[in-house]
Structure formats: C-alpha cells, structure tokens
Amino acid sequence: MILSVENVVKQYSRRFKPTFRLEASFSVAEPAIVGVMGPNGSGKTTLFELITGSNAPSAGRILCMGKDIHQVKASERDRLAIHYHQSYQVRRFARRKPDFLLQPAGSEYPMVHLFDEPQFNTQDGYIGFMLEFFRRLRAEGRVVFLCLHPTERYHLEILREICERFVYVERGKISLFPDFESLATDAAAAGYLGTAA
C-alpha cells in the first residue's frame, strides 16, 4: 500500500464554533495518476496538506509506505509525500515536534507527488512535457495527484487523458470515481464541471 488515508477528520473552529470540517478515507495501493477536483474552499488543499504532514488531522491518520506521515521527521516528510503549489514551488510548513522525537522516512525520493493547481503553459509543447513527467513518475512506482480547476476546456482534456481515477471534494466531503465518465455523470460533480465537460 503506497498511501492510506484512514478515517481522517480536519475540524476548523472559530470561537469554539465549527467553521469547516473535512472528512476523508481512501487508499491508493499501486502507482497511479489521480485527478482531484472540486469548488474553491472545498478542502482540496487541506487534503494535500494532511497527506504531506504539513497540517495535523483532528482525527485519523495518513500512512505513506506504511508510515504515519505525522510521526516522520519533519525534515524528511518530503521524501515520502511532496506538495507542489501552482508554479511548482514546494509547500513548506512549521515543525510541531523536534525531529529527534520522530522516525526517519526510510525513503530517499517522494513516493506521493501532489500537484495543486499547476500552471500549464500552452506554448512550445510544455503540456506534453509535463504529462510525460507525470507518466514517468507513475512508471517509477509513484502516485501522482493532479488538482485542476477546469477553467479552460484543455484542463478537462488533460484530466481525461492522464488520470486513471478521480477524487471529487465538495464542502469537506470526498467522493471517489473510477474514471472520468462516472465523475461527469455524478450530479454534484456535473454541476461543478458545467458546460466545460
């Protein structure tokens, strides 16, 4: 099992009143390219932060290669799961425990790569280059998450072409789909995709 998100809950509150709650439970056993979609504020980035250990869950745990990511040394978590945001910069995070109290990653290269709304330049074959990069990661035994907002039709074409399964996030709830066709026929997801699909 490469990644296991086990009954994870992230609860945000303000003045002791709940403001947002994310619930997630799923696993990725083998190398794959997984599409992630959902409205702004639905919890996609929070999910990515939980998977990489930069955001602590209120309940549940995330296992990457059998290790609880939140019990791995902060300086080594990106050897298990790494979060790239927009222009491919790596997301950083504050340390909550000193590394000497935590376990080593046991890996030299990330097994899970999370691309959070990456920018795709439509010129000079850049998209093809990035899709080949994602496929190469998968061929090397990695899991790739690709989160895109379908603001352009070619975004959906990318997701259709490259992704083998899908995660749809809305209002903190996660739905899993085995392919784009089943995603597009789901009532909530179809409303989000709109005419772009």
Protein model, in words:
This protein is α/β, with parallel strands linked by helices and 197 residues long. The protein has one domain (3-196): Rossmann fold. Helices cover 23% and strands 34% of the residues. It has five helices and eleven strands; from the N terminus they run βββαβββββαβαββαα. It has a seven-stranded mixed sheet, sandwiched between helices. β4 (59-64) and β5 (67-68) form a beta hairpin. The longest helix is centred in the C-terminal third of the chain and has 14 residues, at 126-139. It starts with a strand and ends with a helix. The mean pLDDT is 89.
Q: What layout of secondary structure does this protein have?
A:
Blueprint: E1 3-14, E2 17-28, E3 32-37, H1 44-52, E4 59-64, E5 67-68, E6 81-85, E7 89-90, E8 112-116, H2 126-139, E9 143-147, H3 153-162, E10 165-170, E11 173-177, H4 180-185, H5 187-193
Parallel strand pairs: 3-9, 3-10, 6-8, 8-9
Antiparallel strand pairs: 1-2, 1-4, 4-5, 6-7, 10-11
Query: What is the level-2 CATH architecture name?
Result: 3-Layer(aba) Sandwich
Instruction: Order the strands across the largest sheet as they lie in space.
Output: 7-6-8-9-3-10-11
Radius of gyration: 17 Å
**End-to-end Cα distance:** 32 Å
Instruction: Please summarize the sheet with the most strands.
Output: 7 strands, mixed
**Average pLDDT score:** 89
- Could you tell me the number of beta strands? 11
The residue ranges in which pLDDT falls below 50 over 5 or more consecutive positions are: none
Helix count, DSSP H or I runs of 4 or more residues: 5
CATH homologous superfamily grouping: P-loop containing nucleotide triphosphate hydrolases
The arrangement of helices and strands along the chain is EEEHEEEEEHEHEEHH
Q: Which percent bin holds the helix content? A: 10-25%
The shape is globular
